[in-house]
Every structure is written in C-alpha cells, then in structure tokens.
Specification:
six-stranded mixed beta sheet; Rossmann fold; translocase; three-stranded antiparallel beta sheet; 7 helices; single chain; alpha/beta
Length: 250
C-alpha cells in the first residue's frame, strides 16, 4: 500500500438518513488534500472516519502499516502516526499551553519537543500561559502544536480556521503551508473556503449532493509555497464554484 490513508466506498447514515454514499479517497506521502463542500455535506464526518474516531460506517479504511492503528480519543491524536486538529482548540483550561501540547504523555512529556513546537507555531515564550490568556489564533496555534507533538505522518484538520478573523486565518494558512513542508507530513483538510482549499492543496475533492458524493477532483499543479494571487488558482476557484452551482449544492 503506497498511500498513507485510503478510504474506499464509504457509506454513512444517521438515524436512517444516508449522508455519505460511495466516497473514496487516498492520501499519499507528503500530499495535501482538501475536502471542499457546503456546510452539512459530510466533510467532518468523513474526516472522523479517516481519524479512526467513527467506526460505524460501511466501506473500508486502510492505513499504511507505518502509521499503526487505533484512536486515542479526542486528545488531538488520531493514533498511530495521525494527528487531529478540530474546529475548536479544545485546550484543557486548567493546564498551561505547554502541558496541553504534551498532555497525552502526562509526566513523561518531552519538554524539548514542546519548546521546539512552540517556536515553530509562533508561541515561543507562551508555554506557561493558560488557555484563557490566549487569543483565538494563539489557541489554534497551540492546538496545531498538540497535533504535531507525536510526530505524525498525517495531520487531519477539521475546518481549523473557521472561528478566527480573516487576517488570522491567512496567517494560520501560511503556518500550515510552512509546517507541511518543514515536517514533511501529509494533510487532509476539511474546509468550505474555496481560497483556502486551492491555496493549500495538491488536490481538492469536491463533495456535494444528497446523499453526499465526490462530485469532482481538482489537481492543483503548482509548487508550494504559493502566491495567493496566482492566475491558476483563480481559474480553479472559478471552476469549483461553477461545479457547485451546476450541481445545485450551494
């Protein structure tokens, strides 16, 4: 198996209502893939399945043996070489930023690793602060550091910038782009933001319909890091928007 993650023919229902139907995707080493689509189309559900946090589905989830298996709950680690960053930072309010980042290791947390991550996400010197002392953008940076703490090969991001302002969102997008290159990790990103999807990704997968299916796949043949003003990105955004309109999913 060359892919790090592969989902095949995923079907998922809630209370008898099918929300995902015959969805397949794969994530190759070093690849950034975005799941794009309107709210409620099942993007986050698919990400939870990929993380191993939801096993009530039809179809199959295969992980490369190098990743290992088994979720560790909602700690920010999907288990076995997979890190997870949610829509909300989910920091424990009674722990410092540094303690939140190394929480899964308890008293055995690697202080050097934590300090390195704090520097990488722009929180150098903030490790002793409590979550209530952080801005929204800083809290999400801490959550990203927590997701990277276990040295994952795959990072799953569930609309991680949806709760911050536009300028902070741009800075966090640039941070993710930088970290993907520096850490040589694969990323599966859930978003409903066209600009974000095409700026960050090597491939964009468009979900939509009732139940939701993969409507179209968009390769993004531009090297990273990228210029947000690139004509090629504007063209791809237009193509995706046209597909959304024609499919009546927005």
């Amino acid at each position: 198996m060359s892919a790090l993650l592969e989902l095949r023919d995923i079907r998922k229902s809630f209370s008898g209502v099918k929300v995902l139907d015959d969805v397949s995707l794969s994530l190759a080493p070093g690849e950034v893939v975005s799941l794009l689509g309107p709210s409620g189309c099942g993007k986050s559900t698919l990400l939870r399945i990929a993380a191993g946090l939801d096993d009530e589905f039809a179809g199959s989830l295969e992980r490369n043996p190098l990743l290992g298996f088994g979720p560790d709950g909602d700690s920010g680690r999907g288990g076995g070489g997979v890190g997870v960053v949610f829509q909300e930072p989910r920091l424990l309010p009674w722990l410092t930023v540094a303690q939140n980042i190394g929480f899964a290791d308890g008293w055995l947390a690697d202080d050097n690793r934590i300090e390195h991550l704090l520097r990488d996400v722009g929180l150098d010197g903030k490790g002793d602060l409590l979550p209530k002392q952080l801005s929204g953008g800083m809290a999400q940076r801490a959550a990203i550091a927590r997701g990277l703490y276990g040295r994952p090969q795959v990072l799953l991001l569930d609309e991680p910038f949806s709760a911050v302002d536009a300028f902070t969102r741009i800075r966090l997008q640039d941070l993710i782009q930088q970290l993907a290159l520096e850490y040589d990790i694969s990323i599966l990103l859930v978003t409903h933001d066209l600009d974000e999807a095409f700026y960050l990704s090597d491939r964009v997968l468009l979900l939509g319909g009732t139940p939701s299916r993969l409507r179209r796949k968009f390769p993004v043949p531009l090297p990273r890091p990228r210029d947000r003003r690139a004509v090629e990105l504007a063209f791809l955004r237009g193509e995706a928007l046209t597909e959304l309109h024609q499919s009546h999913v927005i």
